[in-house]
Every structure is written in C-alpha cells, then in structure tokens.
Amino acid sequence: MAWILIVFLILLGGLIAPFGDLLGTKIGKARFSILKLRPKKTATIVTIITGGFISSISIGLLILVSEEFRQRLFVDIPFLQRTLDESKKALIPLQEERKKLENKIIQKEKELNLLKNNISEFRRGNIVIKRGQTLFIAEVNSSSNIKLDLGKIYNEADKFVRKIVLPTNKDAKHILLWRPSDITKIESIASRGGDWILLIKSATNVLRGDNYVFISPDLLENKFIVRKGDVIKSSIFGKSELNRKSINLKIQSLLRETRDEIKSKGSQANEIKTSGNFVKKITDFLKENQNIKFKLEVVSLRDSKTAEPIVVEINILKIVP
Known about the structure:
With 321 residues, the protein is α+β, with helices and mostly antiparallel strands. The chain has helices at 2-29, 39-65, 67-124, 146-165, 180-190, 244-264, 278-288, and strands at 127-129, 134-141, 176-177, 195-202, 206-207, 213-221, 224-226, 231-237, 272-274, 294-300, 304-305, 310-318.
C-alpha cells in the first residue's frame, strides 16, 4: 500500500508540475497581472501557488489514505512534543544540581590548592601559626572596665605571639592586628552583662619572621560545661566482650565520644585529662566479677567552664539483672 501511494504521489506531482509551469507561461504571455504586479512576477506567484497546491494534495492524500501517517501526525508528534516539554522541565533541577556540584568541586579545588600551599610551607619549616589556630584565651568580666581589660589582653597576647613569630627581635611590638569593628562588637556584647571568654585566633597562616599577624577575636559565654559528678558518657559491656583488647577499645571510644560531647556544649579544652589508675581498677574488678554485664562511666571530677580543662575518671559498675 505504501509503495502504491508513493508512486501515485510521484505521478501526481509530475502531472501537476507541468500544468503549473504551463499556466505560469500562459499568464506571462497574456500579460495578466495580480495586485498590480508585473506579469512576470504574477507568473512566478502562480507557479509557487501551484507548488503549494501539489504539497497540500500530497499531504491530504496521505492523511486520507494512510492510517499510519495519521497516527504519526496527530498522535505521535503531539505525544513526542509533550514528552520533550516534560523532559526539559525534568532537566531544570538536574541542571541546578549540576551547578551546585560544579561549585562544590571548585570550592574543593580551592581548598586542595590551599592545603598544597600549606604543606609546601610546612616542608620549608616556615609556618609557625596556622590559620584558625587559637593564640590566646582570656576572661572578660562585664562588671569591670571592658576597654581596659581588652587593652591588657591585647598586650599579653601580643607578647605571647611575638615569642613565636619574632623570637630574636626584642624591639618588635604591636604585631597583632584586628579590625576596629571586631573590638566594637566585643564591647557591645560584653556590656550586656555576664562572664565571657575571649578567644584570639589567627586569621591567616603566619610565617616565622612576619611583621604582622592578623587575628580574629571571638567572644563566648563563660558557662559551665560540666559539673562535678556529671556522667558525661557511658557504655555497657556484655559477657562476650570481657577481654583486655575489647575493654581498651571501648575506653578509647568513650574518651573520643566524651571529647565530642564537651565540644558540642562549647568547651574550648583541647584535651581531656584522666585521673587515677582506672585501668588497674577495671582489671581488678573483672578478676572478681566474671560472666556478668557491667557499665563503664566517664565521670567529671570538677566543675569546668568554657575554657577550663575537663578532668574525668572512668568508673566501672556491675549491672544487676
């Protein structure tokens, strides 16, 4: 059927085309004019209309005779158009996600390049202070003269940092630089009352011999992180875990969890101090108590505020069934 239709269209086009050409020639010779056009242009327009007529007949016959063509024209094409539109809409969030990923990759590349630079400096032994490193910690009491306290803190911090950065230059002074807006912000917050801790951190990597150190101060509330007797973390042991290796791993895990816990509460302590020979205490306990469940507890031995050290002991307790 398709081949017959194709042959028919070819024959039809072959018959109508000469007719259109003949009609255009006749009109040209008759010097017929449409819309006040020259006869030659009028003949050209007639020829074009004839060509359009051939195409219209061809399409009409295809629609009339071929069910497959009707299916393609009136069903498949609109369906494909809708699918294309939906696909474009679906691509929008993917394009946004791609942009986010590209931004993350760019950021990671910057961090990697910075890390490479830092490593290079460390290898040369030049960096003595890392960016973000805490240089000095001091208490700020809102009941005292805040400006005077900040001046004293600055001088002490400056003296401390000079010993690290310029150990041989005894005449150097005032190498710490902080923005006036930071000082204004600290004074504003501290004037509201309460006890505060001032953290002075390095804003950049600092090389030995640098003349200036840019700092970023941060004011934190001086609050209690733990109280004496507080159980910070605990863990239960089963009968199958009563061996030295398991206990040592559990103690290390408990101390890591304890450090994470106090950091989440705002502690600025760099490490946790342990008191007493808790390893011997646990070992002696296990010798006397076999085939039982027990619990390890990390207990605070003192009240500790934001910048104060955390001192703990590890107790072992029998779990009564």
